[in-house]
Write a structure and sequence with these properties.
By secondary structure, the chain is mainly beta. It has five helices and 35 strands. The two termini are 42 Å apart.
Length: 623
């Protein structure tokens, strides 16, 4: 009761400080929103054929103290399972009823994944949110532009850009609690730090950063007298750029991302989930280059990256994984005029992983895409890709994505649709790995149909809705003896609603709702109903506060003690964020977060601990 009273006083104090500020914030003219990921060209949102989710630098800064996965998890269509448990919990990307294998992650335009992981995904636990400039998310089939696995979503992450000053720096430090619903001692057990130095010297620019995170206090297993499972991560990033000529530039980059976490598992002889002393370690080293040549009406660019991966699980079912990948994407972008945009490219990937022997495959995919924006309001986005897989031969995928918009006063209304196919090859771990491999697996094929509406006044109100239907053929599942292709097709359908409203000056609300229905079969941890809402208020140019809510509906999970499916109850979480800027030119920002404000007791993954009420305090110093 005392803790609740203290939190209430803290919230009231935040509001009091905010209202005490001079409410003289000037109205900022809204710029025309531009999106890129769905076409790979910078086009106006009104001409985009999909509801692209764009997370700006401002939104990232208003979520400091949270993780990348937690931020993405507030968007429509997403349920990233594991974000509300211990820091080292495995993440499940349940997007539109899909799984990790159907989500593709890009970092600065280059595909990233781990060929030794079961689903070939990129582990978002490796990244530090403070190193990111913007995020764009396109849901639905996008294999034409991005290749294998881009079936339910593409998450395009752009890292921080260099300052125009010779030297600029940013220091971020956050300290917070890390406790369950039953523990309310409010000890400092979670720490995040990041330092970034960047700048521009004539034709040379640079960005260098170091970050670390540490958390303890929570056990992965939900059991009496359980031992804490600490999590630690560090990140080192360096990006260098040079403008050789007006039309030729080169960017080179390197990064090391590493984390270590204690985990709980299934020890013999009973093989039931328990509190154990198991560990998991993951490390990725990545280097790459991106030369770009501009010419009249177009550009030629190459994105190339090499990744070295090491993972180790220390448990009764322990394993050591070594993998590497080389990805090259060479493409020519040409703009015929203000209405026609084309891209032609070749994407190559070489993936290797060590099991009992080294296994590998390659992909060589030519692709082309055209965007035609007519003066009549009709936009057509059409393209195709020929997947050439060294193990599975050739597979043609394509997309047709028309949209039509009409001007409404200063804004617009548009209707859009999409018909897209996707190709998902079995991963090396599924074919040759340590647990249940099946070298006879067939590739999975997805067909996605979408249709939607959007209305945007461009003056503080936007609402959109989209219906989606995805059919999976040869769905890859883990059966009684290992990996296999499902005997029947699976179909997932649903719809998403999104809205953004500026209620009054400096006060805005955003909300989204997702309905997902699996028409055939069953899937665990997939909620049918899911909703998010956020209320944001700029008390002044220096003071900001937000209150956000998240609802997750009923879903099923597997009880591995009995190997039966059980229902998990729905739950709702309320989170609070407050920040205030100090010093000349707002160089210092202090912020407070309170997650799970009302200490909701819920289950995210059966048998695993969830986070109770947790608070954090941090600062961001810039110069």
């Amino acid at each position: 009761m005392k803790k609740l009273k203290w939190l209430g006083m803290l919230s009231f104090g935040m509001l009091s400080v905010g209202f005490a500020q001079t409410q003289d914030s000037t109205k900022v003219e809204k710029l025309e929103e531009v999106v890129i990921t769905d076409t790979r060209f910078a086009i106006k949102r009104e001409n985009s054929g999909k509801t692209v989710v764009k997370i700006t630098r401002k939104e990232i800064e208003n979520n400091q103290g949270r993780t990348l996965a937690q931020l993405i998890n507030s968007k429509s269509g997403f349920e990233i399972n594991g974000t509300r448990s211990v820091a080292g919990q495995n993440l499940g990307y349940f997007v539109r009823g899909g799984n990790n294998r159907q989500v593709l992650v890009l970092i600065d335009g280059i595909q990233v994944n781990d060929p030794s992981l079961v689903n070939n995904e990129f582990d978002l636990r490796l990244l530090d949110l403070n190193t990111i400039e913007t995020i764009e998310i396109v849901k639905g089939g996008s294999s034409t532009l991005y290749g294998n696995s881009a079936a339910t979503a593409v998450i395009n992450i752009t890292t921080k850009k260099s300052s125009i000053k010779a030297i600029s720096a940013s220091f971020i430090s956050v300290v917070g609690t890390n406790q369950s619903q039953d523990i309310n001692d409010y000890r400092a057990e979670r720490f995040t730090n990041n330092v970034t130095v960047n700048g521009t010297l004539n034709d040379f620019n640079y960005v260098a950063s170091f970050g670390n995170q540490f958390a303890e206090g929570l056990s992965a297993a939900e059991s009496p007298n359980s031992e804490a499972d600490p999590f630690s991560r560090y990140n080192v990033n360096l990006k260098l750029g040079y403008q050789f000529l007006d039309k030729f530039s080169l960017t080179a980059f390197g990064s090391t991302n590493r984390f270590k976490t204690d985990i709980d598992g299934f020890p013999p002889p009973n093989f039931t989930f328990a509190d154990t002393n198991d560990e998991f370690l993951s490390k990725q080293k990545r280097v790459g280059i991106a030369p770009k040549f501009l010419y009249k009406n177009g550009s030629i660019q190459i994105n190339a990256a090499y990744t070295d991966i090491e993972r180790e699980t220390i448990s009764a079912f322990g394993s050591v994984n070594e993998a590497e990948s080389f990805v090259l994407d060479a493409f020519n972008k040409y703009t015929f005029n203000d209405n026609i945009f084309t891209i032609v490219g070749l994407n190559y990937g070489d993936y290797k992983s060590l099991f009992t022997a080294e296994e590998s495959f390659t992909t060589t995919d030519p692709y082309a895409n055209v965007v035609f924006v007519t003066d009549l309001g009709l936009t057509v986005n059409v393209g195709g890709r020929l997947n050439n897989h060294s193990e599975y031969g050739s597979q043609f995928v394509y997309n047709l994505n028309p949209s039509y918009k009409i001007d409404v006063n200063e804004g617009y209304a548009k209707v859009f649709g999409s018909y897209a196919t996707s190709f998902i090859a079995p991963n090396l771990s599924q074919l040759f790995g340590f647990f249940g491999p099946n070298p006879n697996l067939e590739p999975e094929e997805n067909l996605t149909i979408e249709g939607g509406l959007e209305y945007n006044t461009k003056n503080g109100f936007r609402i959109s809705g989209v219906y989606f239907n995805r059919d999976e053929d040869n769905t890859i599942i883990f059966g009684a003896v290992g990996y296999e292709n499902a005997a029947t097709d699976a179909t997932v359908q649903g719809f998403e609603l999104e809205t953004e409203i500026d209620l009054v000056k400096d006060l805005s609300i955003s909300a989204n709702y997702t309905f997902t229905e699996l028409k055939d079969g069953t899937r665990i941890r997939l909620p049918k109903h899911r909703a998010n809402a956020s209320l944001d208020y700029d008390f002044s140019p220096r003071t900001f506060a937000s209150l956000d809510a998240q609802y997750v509906g009923k879903r099923m999970d597997t009880d591995f003690a009995t190997f039966t499916n059980v229902d998990l109850e729905a739950y709702s979480l309320i989170n609070l964020y407050f920040s205030h800027k100090l010093l000349e030119n707002n160089k210092l920002k202090v912020f407070v977060t309170v997650n799970n404000l009302f200490n909701e007791d819920y289950s995210e993954i059966l048998g695993f601990t969830t986070q109770g009420r947790n608070a954090s305090l941090g600062f961001n110093l810039k110069f």
